[in-house]
Amino acid sequence: MDSLIAASARALAAGDPLGALKRVALRDDPPALALRGIAMAQLGDYSRARELLRRAARGFGTHEEQSRARCIVAEAEVALAQRDFGGSSRTLLAAAATLEARADRTNAWHARLIAVRRALRLGRLAEAAAGLAALDTGALPPALAAAAEMASAELDLRAMRVTPAVAALDRARVAAERARVPALAAEVTQARSALEHPAARRLGAAGEVALRLDEVGALLSSGDLVVDACHHTLRVGDARVALARRPVLFALARTLAEAWPGDVARHVLIARAFGMRDPDETHRARLRVEVGRLRALAAGMAKVEATAQGFRLVPHDGRAVVVLAPPIDGDQASLVALLSDGAAWSTSALALALGASQRTVQRALADLEAEGRVRSAGRARAQRWLAPPLAGFTTILLLPAALPLE
């Protein structure tokens, strides 16, 4: 390593990207390109950073596999910051394997953590959990240990395991203090404070009550019949009926639950479930069919009884009925929750994370932009979407693909 490369690397390690660029800005050899790429990433020019890192990786080629693998890992981290989820993580994991084979364990662990964080952003929680389980967290350097514990906490929170999540965040705080990285410590503090904010609302006869995550966990284990509008499920203790793919049935269940212990008129159910304000006999016939389907699916939890004017929900064993609603209303709550992380998302990345088509996401974004809730930057393929942070509550229950509640 020549003296300019060494000095540039030291400047980057000290958080001085401009100082690093001064030493290698006019050089196009692979080590200089790699350092320039990292410097541009630190300055926030992600597109230029990725271009430089790719050129560096090509320059190193197969005869310098370790350096090439490091460039691939660095580019993957920039892509994650850029919310670019195109392609698979196969190249990143291959780079991690290359680094492991050359005893570059720190960079190999870093690569695998990037893969875990990428899977979390995409809602691929099983993949993230498997990647995290493969890491020996006890051997990680402090900064990587803090990142691993943060990922572990997010997995626990998305499965509503609040106590293990708090323990993981406490370990992350200790690791961040050992790492002495202010930005990392601030990130851990922010994640910990989210537990103190409301995560959902309890709707019932007594009105609306904001709930923290630990209170949501207590409600779900209370034994009451919970109509969960965050995950579109019916739940009694450990028993669940998933209605995420049955929107009409869930609309009926929620409407009946909101009126419990009273009943709901047929025309109200038709309006809520089918969006019809002037129902005719065909709509009433369809309502009978859909209520029959809901009655069959919820038979182990409650009965759906016919009344003179409509239907009512009657839970078994004298249980209460509670509606658990997300902290914000609207069909686009998950989309807004993703955008509120402060990063700029592309339409394709949002579609991938939500499991929806790009056209569906584009229509939703256009509606949100008209309402002033999101804004775009750039054009065509470079267009990115942003939203202001959602202050005052945590969005963990709004994120897509939460783990089955256990």
Please provide a written account of the structure:
GO terms for molecular function: DNA binding. This is DNA-binding protein. Keywords: DNA-binding. The protein is 55% helix and 11% strand. The protein has 18 helices and eleven strands. The strands form three sheets. It has a six-stranded mixed sheet with strand order 2-1-9-3-4-5. A three-stranded antiparallel sheet has the order 6-8-7. A two-stranded antiparallel ribbon has the order 10-11. Strand 7 and strand 8 (310-315) form a beta hairpin. Residues 402-406 have low confidence and may be disordered.
Kindly state the number of beta strands: 11
User: Would you tell me which CATH topology of the largest domain applies?
Assistant: Serine Threonine Protein Phosphatase 5, Tetratricopeptide repeat
The secondary-structure element order is HHHHHHHHHHHEEHEEEHEHHEEEHHHEE
Order of strands across the widest beta sheet?
2-1-9-3-4-5
Assembly form of the protein: single chain
Q: Which residues sit in consecutive blocks of at least 5 with pLDDT less than 50?
A: 402-406
- Characterize the biggest β-sheet: 6 strands, mixed
Quickly give the CATH architecture of the largest domain.
Alpha Horseshoe
**Overall outline:** elongated
Protein name: DNA-binding protein
InterPro entries: WH_DNA-bd_sf (IPR036390)
GO molecular function, one term: DNA binding
Organism: Piscinibacter gummiphilus
How is this structure best summarized?
This protein has 18 helices and 11 strands.
Question: What secondary-structure arrangement, pairings included, does this model have?
Answer:
Blueprint: H1 3-13, H2 17-24, H3 30-42, H4 46-60, H5 65-81, H6 90-101, H7 105-121, H8 125-133, H9 142-158, H10 162-179, H11 182-194, E1 200-204, E2 207-211, H12 213-220, E3 225-228, E4 233-236, E5 239-242, H13 247-259, E6 264-265, H14 266-274, H15 281-297, E7 302-306, E8 310-315, E9 321-325, H16 333-339, H17 347-354, H18 358-370, E10 375-377, E11 384-386
